[in-house]
Amino acid sequence: MRIDIAGIGREPDRMDHAAFVGRIEEIDRLGYDGVWFNEFHFQTPPQPYPSLLLLAAAVLARTERVRIGTSVLVLPLHNPLLLAEQIAQLDWQSGGRIDIGLGRGTDPGTLVRLGVDPASTRERFEGAFDTIKSVWLGTAKQQIADGEPLEIPVQPCVQVPHPPLYIAGYTEETLTFAGRHGLPLLLSLEPPETRQIEIYRDVVRAHGFPCRLAESSLTRYVVIGRSEAEAEAHLERLLPLLQKRRIYYAGRRGVAPQDVLPIDRALLLRDQLILGDPPSCFAQIVDLRRRMGIAALRCVFNGNGVLSPPISMEQMRLFSQEVLPLLRDI
User: Fold this and answer.
1) Rounded to an integer, what distance in angstroms lies between the CA atom of residue 214 and that of residue 51?
2) I want to staple 271 with a disulfide (CB 3.0 to 4.6 A). Which of 46, 123, 172, 192 is the partner?
3) How far apart are CA 20 and CA 7, in angstroms?
4) Which pLDDT score is estimated for 159?
5) Can you list the alpha helix ranges (DSSP code H) found in the chain?
């Protein structure tokens, strides 16, 4: 089973770049299969790594085996021809150690700052994807002034197969797009993936698309302790921080703090969390794979940036020592 790390790169206590890359080097040594980074622009406070591909290049140069994923590159924000070249170059430089998650993006502040009409993101997303694939196949269509398409031969900067592609999204339109192109999904914590999978299965069944759930990737918060009591203590520390994070992001959507519902612990445990000592975490992941039929898990040890690196690294090390070896056999 593939086990990756997600949620790092935006921790509350900033570290310098050398320390951050050293952290990824340790994740590589611990045996995790991949690390996924998110694309966020113009954040308050500013995020240290708005450019995923620049960060990926730096990390890949300092690691040996771990894969680096984008979750996601927001296609409407990029020139697709340039992006196709950059991805192909990075795939070549890394020896094929990148995974490319793609998405439409919905953050209104970013779209406004870049002059992108929110109503155009669907068209931009699908058009950019078609352009990128055309470039990698060797022929791209460019629209010229009189409206006639011009066939131009465009070779990738290096002759290599394109990296694995994933689609992130939860709307029927995006899940239909993934099905039509035969692409696996990057499934999210919020909204929980149950509804996404239900829509996706309906889509592939209705249209006869290939089902790529087996190659898709789930996400879960992971809270592990050497005992059940220790894990529960970690969770009690995490819950108020997660609620604070919910209030912050709700506020960005114009929702008042008093209108944000408290976290439903039962739903969190059911839909978003792996919790317990090492044997319990292992059993929960085995059951998750059995129920979902998905063999890749992106583990979030830091609550998506609310826990400090020393705390999350301690749990990553314990999981690596006690759980990761067992998961290699399933």
Assistant:
1) 29
2) 192
3) 13
4) 45
5) 17-30, 52-62, 80-93, 108-113, 121-137, 172-180, 193-207, 228-252, 265-271, 278-292, 309-322, 324-327
Q: Return all residues near 71 (Cβ < 8 A) that are at least 6 apart.
A: 6, 36, 37, 38, 101, 166, 168, 186, 298
Q: Which residue has the higher pLDDT, 99 or 157?
A: 99
The count of C-alpha atoms lying within 13 angstroms of the C-alpha of 96, restricted to the half-sphere facing its C-beta, is 5
The strand pair at 149-153 and 139-143 is best described as: antiparallel
Closest by CA to 168, choosing from 153, 186, 152, 182, is: 186
Tell me the three state secondary structure of residue 181: coil
The residue behind tokens 């430089």 is 93
CA distance 306 to 301: 10
CA distance 217 to 292: 10
Q: Which residues of 75-90 are buried (b: 16+ CB within 10 A; e: fewer)?
A: bbbbebbebbbbbbbb
Question: Which pair of structure tokens corresponds to residue 42?
Answer: 């113009």
Integer Cα distance of 122 and 128 in angstroms: 10
Give the tens place of pLDDT for each residue, 283-330. 999 999 999 999 999 999 999 989 988 999 999 999 999 999 999 888
Give pLDDT tens digits for 232-265: 999 999 999 999 988 988 887 789 999 999 999 9
Tokens of 23: 């952290």
pLDDT single digits (tens) 89-123? 999 999 999 999 999 987 888 888 899 999 999 99
Q: Which two tokens stand for residue 103?
A: 């998405």
pLDDT band for position 152 (cuts 50, 70, 90) = very low
% of the chain residues with pLDDT over 90: 73
The tally of CA atoms less than 13 A away on the side-chain side of residue 40 is 13
